[in-house]
Design a protein that fits this description.
Layout: E1 5-16, E2 19-25, E3 28-30, E4 34-38, H1 45-52, E5 60-65, E6 68-70, H2 74-77, E7 81-84, H3 96-106, H4 115-125, H5 141-152, E8 159-163, H6 171-186, E9 190-195, H7 198-201, E10 207-212, E11 215-221, H8 222-229, E12 232-236, H9 240-249, E13 253-258, E14 261-265, H10 272-281, E15 288-292, H11 296-304
Parallel strand pairs: 4-9, 4-10, 7-8, 8-9
Antiparallel strand pairs: 1-2, 1-3, 1-5, 5-6, 10-11, 12-14, 12-15, 13-14
Helix pairs in contact: 3-4, 4-5
This protein binds adenosine-5'-triphosphate and magnesium ion.
Amino acid sequence: MSTDAAIRTVDLRKTFRRQHAVDGIDLFVPRGSVFGFLGPNGSGKTTTIRMLLGLSKPTSGTIEVLESPMPASLADVLPRVGALVEGPAFTPFLSGRANLRRFDAADVRSVAKTRDERVQVALERVGLLHAADKKAHAYSLGMKQRLGLANALLAPRELLILDEPTNGLDPQGTREVRNLIRSLADDGTTVFVSSHLLAEIEQVCTHAAVMRQGSIVAQGSLDDLRSARGARVTVATPDPDRAVAVLQRLGVTDTHVEAAGASGALPPDLPIERVTAALVEADVRVRGLSASGSSLEDLFVELTGEGFDVAG
Ligand SMILES: Nc1ncnc2c1ncn2[C@@H]1O[C@H](COP(=O)(O)OP(=O)(O)OP(=O)(O)O)[C@@H](O)[C@H]1O
Ligand SMILES: [Mg+2]
């Protein structure tokens, strides 16, 4: 992975009337990464993506895509970027295949001679071959989503920007999209993919940024993000209060007494063996002890706030 940026923004902002939909974000998407752009509904993901693609004008701030300033370099950059953004405009009375042929024909750089074959390959890659000749208006949401993806894949691209590509897909379809992203990344394509569901893309991402109400609240490699939160230790014991006292003495923070034991946040420099030894030494009856690497899911929930409320 290089240190070059496929996407870089500085203090990027979009304000609608008085609402700060995107509130000054510094995005850094390394070339070669699969970058998860995460955040709950209404946190500003689509607004950001539309600005990256020149579909909407920033209120302020700067954008570089593939090392070129945007939107100044739009004409040069866009052909190198495949995109799937909310609600792509398909012609309803044409088949999926015919829609793709039209989109490809509209691309000045596309080679007409290879069109049918490229359309066929794209349809196959997104698992839409069986429905390729059905009219687009008869497509289900998931089929439309697949058609949008196929459109992004008509030509080889350096960068793919996918806004919620798993939206409307069933679990099997979601798995297929993950595999597709993996295989694209293996080919060297940088993939920038948004989702409000961490679990759907966590397995394929190398990097992520977490949005909350227009701001980035965490960004970096997945390893960095995981270790930022640290691991927790859980002790199964009939003596939870005494266990907590021992844990606290060792520097464990955020301790809790639980139904069948105690838990706390393990400081990075405290080996789990020392916890075991100290508990035994203090005659705490230990039935089980585990240290869990914190899940990204926990971090995500912590950063974005739980619950189902969308950001106004
Ligand atoms: N054209 C617009 N005019 C006014 N407000 C807008 C407009 N587009 C987006 N917003 C507001 O900006 C905020 C961010 O919306 P955005 O669509 O970027 O969120 P999102 O993260 O993509 O959410 P979701 O997960 O639901 O797709 C929302 O509060 C939304 O209502
Ligand atoms: Mg959105």
